[in-house]
Each structure stands twice: as C-alpha cells, then as structure tokens.
Amino acid sequence: WYTTADYKQTNDASSDLELLKHLSKDFADLLNRTDISDCWLNVNDTYMAVHRCVLAARSNTFSGK
What we know:
Blueprint: H1 13-31, E1 39-43, E2 46-50, H2 52-57, H3 59-62
C-alpha cells in the first residue's frame, strides 16, 4: 500500500476519504513539478510543462471538440 508519513491504513469510509485527500495532494504536487514533465503544451504562444499521462486522461479537453 502507498502511504504518506501522516497516513495510517484503516478500513472505514472516513479513512478512505482521508487517503483520497493525501493522494490528490501528492498527485497535485507531482503535476506542479516542471522538472519531471515530459512534454510542452503551446497555448496561445505560451508554453507550459505538462505530463503526457494528464493529457491522455483529459484527451477530450484537448481534442478540439
């Protein structure tokens, strides 16, 4: 199991919610790191460091539909 320093695994709904909070923060921290981004996205002549996994997960957003 993946755990953070202040998270301890238990088996109830409130702990599941707590785990989701920790994971979403960890994921947000990962996405905010430009040093490990694997591609660049050009939006109106402004480049942003992004992750291909996020672009794939949000492909309907970037498909031009």
